[in-house]
Sequence to fold (410 residues):
Amino acid sequence: MTNGPMDIVMVWRAPKPGQVKVSGTITKQHVGLENGVKFSIERLHESNMGSATYVLGPNLMLSTQESHYHTLTVEKGDLLFFRAHTNQTPFEELGVKWNPRVEYTGENPDPIQEASRHESSYDEGVLVGTNLEHTFKKKGKFRLEWPNFNNYDEDRVTIRVSFFKKGTDGGGNLPVVGNNVVIYEKTSDIREYTSFNSPNLDLDMSSITSVPSSFLYVKVEVLSDSEIDWGQLDRKFKPKLVSLNRDNTDVYLTPYYGNYNKVHTSHPPLEYIASGPNVRVTIKNNFSLSDCTEAVCQDRYVYLVARGGSGQIIPLVNMRTDEPIGYMKFRYKFNAAGTIVQKQRLNENYQYVNLDDTYEITLTSNIGSKDFFEYYTTEYKIGELLDAYQDSTTTPLIKVTGGSPAPYTY
Fold:
């Protein structure tokens, strides 16, 4: 940090309502008695970005270390701002470290503990939701590269890089080379190590002039159909454009992570209280969402993913042959009226196959184990409509039966 009017601010957003513990320790270099750091924790809701209320401070920190601990009740969409500012003398850089942690109280209901929405610290965080296009206004030549890495996760991950120019009169994005704006794309498999080696692609931007229509754009996306450990992937994936001439410097590219950071509901999982009897899970694949519009629902997808207690997507096998037949991962495509026009399940070859209106699966109960059923969509409004549908219908989308007495709670 340096002396001046700018503050350093970290922000945490509540993905769901509940009670949270907020803790951390802030430390600083000791430059002199006249040196100090002011820090505070402020709070407001994303729907009303007015004046914030103080949870802590602002405190003037004259010692080298201070700790804090608070318990708060939050609503979904509450924002906590962790703010630090230095007023040191003389003017020089000052080392300050602060890694606040926010944790919901009670049992963690998330199947993927490592990528949990139940607790996180700043160091474990990742920038999400920034649909960033890097704009290039100066001609040059670059090479797209990143350090080689392997990725292993609970769902498939796609890394996609696009290189394009803007069409005139709202004509959309146009390819710079060839017929496709996408210059790199690779998708991993479920629970298998996948190598993402540096593509080492040369990007020629010599056509750029001072005219805005000649500007070129690069976009990096990291996408998945459900929740994964975005943080561990972000720590490995460091894309950049290496300048091939002296007139430009290297450009580090900020990826867009398709993170599902808005949670509508958090229902208890299917929990087994006895071992032995099989249970039958019936999934309703044909339903419609009222109040849909073309802008909200047309050609949009909703994914249903069933996970075991360690976060793995439940694999399916043929009960007669014991051969794998895919995963408990379903995809629903909607039209403008909110009607499902395509209902599919991921098979063993990572292809989506069509389904009937209902789908039945037999699971074996094992006392103490849990299965989680989660719907995902990148469209926040569809999430609201699906949540409202589940609250209003008397016919559940996921029905569990079997055993007498039932060896489960759900």
